[in-house]
Specification:
The complex is a heterodimer of chains A (191) and B (75). Chain A is mostly helical and 191 residues long. In chain A, 79% of the residues lie in helices and 0% in strands. Chain A has one domain (2-178). Chain A has helices at residues 2-7, 10-37, 43-73, 81-85, 94-115, 117-129, 131-146, 154-175, 184-190. Chain B contains one helix and two strands, in the order αββ. The chains are: A mainly alpha (191), B alpha+beta (75). The interface between A and B is medium-sized, with 23 and 16 residues.
Chain lengths: 191, 75
C-alpha cells in the first residue's frame, strides 16, 4: 500500500476532485443567483441568500485555483502556466481546455464585480451578470469534453442535474416579472 | 462564518473524492492460481487406455512432466 501511495498520481487526483467541487460550488452559486432574481424567493430569503451566493462563487474560484495548481504540478500532463491561463495555448484538447480557461476568467470577473457593484452601478452589475450564463455553459462544456470522470452515463447525468435547474430558473426569470427590491414597494404603492 | 463553512465543506469534499479515486485505482492483488486436478489418458503397450488422475497440478502452469525419455518398450 505504501508503494502504491508513493507512486499514486496525487496531483492528478487532486486536479480532478478540485475541478468537480469547483463546478458543484459554481453551479450552486448560479442556482442561487437565478432563484434570487425571480420572485420564487421572498425578499427576506434574498437577504440571507445573497451572501451565500457571493461566498459560493469565491469558494468555487478558490477550488478552480486548486484545480489549476494541481494540473501544473502533475508530472504526466506537462501543463505550462500559459496553457492554464491563456485560451487555446494548451496542446492537449485546446478547445476543451480553452472553455475552462474562459469560464475561469469570467467567474473571476463576476466575483470581483460583487465588490465593484457601487462603482459600476446596479444596471451595469446586472448586465455583467448575464455573463454567468456563458461561464456556466463553458464550464459544463469543459467538464464534459476534458473531464475524465464524466464518460458514459456521468456526462448526461451532470447536464441534467446541473443544467436542468438553470434552464428552469432561467425560464422562470424570463417569464415571471422581476423581483422588486424591498425599498421600492413603498414607492410603487405611493405612486 | 459562511466562508469558513464553505471552505471546510469544500476541502472535505476534495479529500473524499481524492480518497475515492485512489481507492478505485489501487492495484488489486492477483489471486494465486489454484492447483487443479488433471486427468491424463495413458495408452498402455497392450493397446489399453488408462485414465490417470493427477492432483495438485496448476493448470497451464505445470512445467513439462519429465526431462527424461521413456525407456524403450521391451520385446
Amino acid at each position: 500500500m505504501n508503494a502504491f501511495l508513493a507512486h499514486a498520481p496525487v496531483a492528478w487526483y487532486v486536479a480532478r476532485a478540485a475541478g468537480l467541487v469547483a463546478f458543484a460550488l459554481l453551479t450552486l452559486s448560479v442556482w442561487l443567483g437565478l432563484a434570487m432574481s425571480t420572485r420564487l424567493l421572498g425578499p427576506r430569503r434574498q437577504k440571507v441568500l445573497f451572501p451565500w451566493h457571493q461566498t459560493l462563487a469565491w469558494t468555487g474560484l478558490s477550488m478552480v485555483a486548486l484545480h489549476v495548481g494541481a494540473l501544473l504540478l502533475d508530472p504526466t500532463l506537462h501543463f505550462g502556466i500559459a496553457s492554464v491561463l491563456a485560451p487555446f495555448a494548451s496542446a492537449w484538447r485546446p478547445a476543451a481546455v480553452a472553455a475552462g480557461v474562459v469560464a475561469g476568467w469570467l467567474t473571476l470577473v463576476l466575483a470581483l464585480s460583487f465588490r465593484m457593484r457601487k462603482r459600476i452601478g446596479q444596471k451595469g452589475w446586472r448586465r455583467l451578470h448575464y455573463a454567468s450564463f456563458a461561464a456556466f455553459a463553458l464550464a459544463l462544456g469543459h467538464a464534459l469534453a476534458a473531464g475524465t470522470d464524466l464518460k458514459g452515463i456521468g456526462g448526461p447525468l451532470l447536464v441534467a442535474v446541473a443544467g436542468g435547474p438553470v434552464i428552469w430558473l432561467g425560464l422562470a426569470r424570463i417569464l415571471m416579472p422581476r423581483a422588486v427590491p424591498a425599498g421600492r414597494h413603498a414607492i410603487q404603492a405611493g405612486a | 462564518m459562511q466562508r469558513v463553512w464553505a471552505t471546510v465543506v469544500s476541502v472535505w469534499a476534495v479529500l473524499a473524492i481524492v480518497a475515492a479515486l485512489a481507492w478505485a485505482h489501487a492495484p488489486v492483488a492477483q489471486p494465486l492460481s489454484q492447483p487443479a486436478a488433471l486427468t491424463l489418458l495413458v495408452k498402455g503397450k497392450n493397446g489399453t487406455t488408462q485414465r490417470v488422475h493427477v492432483v495438485g497440478v496448476a493448470a497451464g502452469t505445470a512445467t513439462h512432466a519429465t526431462t527424461q525419455t521413456s525407456a524403450p518398450p521391451v520385446g
